[in-house]
Amino acid sequence: MKKSNWSIITGAAFLMATSAIGPGFLTQTAVFTSQLGASFGFVILVSVLLDAIAQLNVWRIVVISGKPAQEIANQLLPGLGYVLSALVFVGGMAFNIGNLAGAGLGLNVLAGCSIERGAAISAAIAIGIFLIKEAGKMMDHFARVLGILMILLTLYIAWISHPPVAETLARSVAPSTFSFTALLTIVGGTVGGYITFAGAHRLLDAGMGGRQSLRDVNRGAVSAIGLASLMRILLFLAALGVISSGKVLDPANPPASVFRLASGELGYKFFGLVMWSAAITSVVGAAYTSVSFVKSFHQAIGKNSRSIIIGFITVSCLLFLSIGQPVKTLLVVGALNGLILPVALATMLLAAYRSRLVGNYKQPLWLSIAGVLVVAIMAWMSYGVLIQLAGK
């Protein structure tokens, strides 16, 4: 692989992974660990499989076609691209409100400023990235550095919390309890909504496309899921270690209490840094990807996409300052984001068999079958969760 390609692929992988690893990701993992204990390991393993299948299908079709997802959808069925873009754009805005809340909380822990001021400062930093001439390269570098930092800090907390490894391994293959809501939520939080397209659209913007890029695309897609899953597993182990020692997580801020109970005030400062890193990279990823879903609809939008990204971040910040973002909403938005995945993935699977979109490319049969199974599983779980939410 050429050095330039490697840089593009790793940048796309980290963009997708850090887009997934946001405040909701941290909150969901801590909450479901406290609810399911070691059996949450089984949910994570199933989610990794579903995530990888979805990611491989989406990245391959987008790059092979050389078109962003909304154009593929519109060519498949006129108007479908606009529907998909609306779902992704609104979902990305909702997530970015939570992302900025998390960034504000992180700076509150680190520097003692108010959450609102921390959110505003973080929004300004994210906007600054898109004011730089080489914004794409800066975004890739930013995601890499903070992504590695988050993983290392969480690895330390997982190690110091002493999780019950033997029980975790056993329950990860033979769970004593299971939650469809947990599975839907964490799959939605990893590859739902805008997230699964973040890396693929970044590859298009970097000039990658066609069958000659397939090997690199496969590596990038698998690497992205691997990075996000590694962070999920480390946080799960850290939370499980804390819970297994008899301590109780604070429902007002579950992930913060994991770090604090494991390593005292030092751990709490580490949480602040992890939360800020997770949130600020997700702010960047959500804004970039959400706008990538509308910039092809009109020449003026494409020419001014950077200004629209800045506006997207600004509006998200203003909405947060107006309405706030509680833990419960982060969980609900994560579940709702998972509802977009069946629609988006089904669209990509159909596009894989339209020669006007992919030429003479032949999608591997096993990948298509696996993709159809993921669509069916996610649609079924989404229906169950919608019924559950409607009954509350």
Automatic annotation (TrEMBL):
It comes from the Bacteria. GO terms for molecular function: metal ion transmembrane transporter activity. InterPro entries: NRAMP_fam (IPR001046). Keywords: Membrane, Transmembrane, Transmembrane helix. The keyword Membrane applies. One of its GO terms (cellular component) is membrane. This is Divalent metal cation transporter. It comes from Hufsiella ginkgonis.
